Amino acid sequence: MTAGEAMATAAARLRTAGVPDPARDARVLLAHAAQVDAIRITLIAPEDIEPEIVVRYEHLIALRSARVPVSHLIGEREFYGRKFKVSPDVLDPRPETETLIEAALSEDFTRALDLGVGSGCILVTLLAERLNVTGVGTDLSEDACLQSSVNVVLNNVADRVEIINTCWFDGLEGRFDLIVSNPPYLTAFEMEEVAPELRDHEPRMALTDEGDGLSAYRVIAAKAGDYLTTTGRVICEIGYEQGEDVFNIFRDQGWGSLMILPDLDERDRVIIARNPA
């Protein structure tokens, strides 16, 4: 069997299973099975592939057909030009979160706090882009703290980061001029409608508060002011239909200069709040 034939067969199988963009996933998984760079796959398409590669590939395609995320199968995901190790213990880094990164990097800051650090993709990226910045990441999940610690080391920012296993602000001291978060914002109802990759293979506690999807913002809006410098900012990712609700939560807590930013698809994605007046 040639590499091209294997990919065509795999793509058809993934398409039948309802996998989005099956050709792309077939290509990426064959590259992983063959241990070659994905950009070389088209070059080896006419070549026969070894039987052991066929076995590995069939196993990967079977798992992907069961809607296991590609990132879990290959063990990593790219975010803002860097690779992050991922697992079922953390959310996959997603392109829309880069809107938060761009907003954070638009102004100077020296000390950052990431609430619900997960894979560490936000905090690590901010520190990797700003070499004079130090940061703290908190997460209620011990497994997530371990995963983010791995990515802190892999991306060479370990000497400037502290990862703490705690709930939101509990046990924190000091002040930060940037507080960021991508909290669980799906409602309990929305969880029933999401793709199987999220519903069945990513940590539920990182996706939903099992309620209206707004509880994390209430906590952040109520408490962040005690940990923010007078010129600091809070930047949170939000659900695309939550802009007005989250805006009102922060407004009612006295936050100033509130702004909602869209992602590349022009959907509400980020709220920026200045220190309460």
Write down the CATH topology of the largest domain.
Rossmann fold
Report the C-alpha radius of gyration, rounded: 20 Å
Structural class: alpha/beta
Strand ordering within the main sheet: 5-4-3-6-7-9-8
Question: How many β-strand stretches?
Answer: 9
What about the largest sheet? 7 strands, mixed
Shape: elongated
CATH class of the largest domain: Alpha Beta
- Helical fraction: 40-55%
Order of helices and strands: HHHHHEEHEHEHEEHHHHEHEE
Contiguous runs where pLDDT drops below 50 for at least 5 residues: none
The total number of structural domains is 2
Distance between the first and last residues' Cα: 68 Å
- Roughly what fraction of the amino acids lie in strands? 15-25%
Q: Count the DSSP helices.
A: 13
CATH architecture of the largest domain: 3-Layer(aba) Sandwich
CATH superfamily of the largest domain: Vaccinia Virus protein VP39
- Averaged pLDDT: 95
Tell me what the structure shows.
The chain is α/β, with parallel strands linked by helices. It folds into two domains: 3-66; 76-274, Rossmann fold (3-Layer(aba) Sandwich). 41% of the residues lie in helices and 19% in strands. It contains 13 helices and nine strands. It has helices spanning 3-16, 22-34, 41-44, 51-65, 70-74, 98-105, 121-129, 142-154, 188-191, 196-201, 204-207, 215-223, 243-252; strands at residues 76-79, 82-85, 111-115, 134-139, 161-165, 176-181, 228-237, 256-262, 268-274. The strands form two sheets. The protein has a seven-stranded mixed beta sheet, sandwiched between helices. A two-stranded antiparallel sheet has the order 1-2. Helix 1 packs across helix 2 (22-34), helix 1 packs parallel to helix 4 and helix 6 packs parallel to helix 7 (121-129). The longest helix is centred in the N-terminal third of the chain and has 15 residues, at 51-65. The radius of gyration is 20 Å and the shape is elongated. The model has no long low-confidence stretch (mean pLDDT 95).
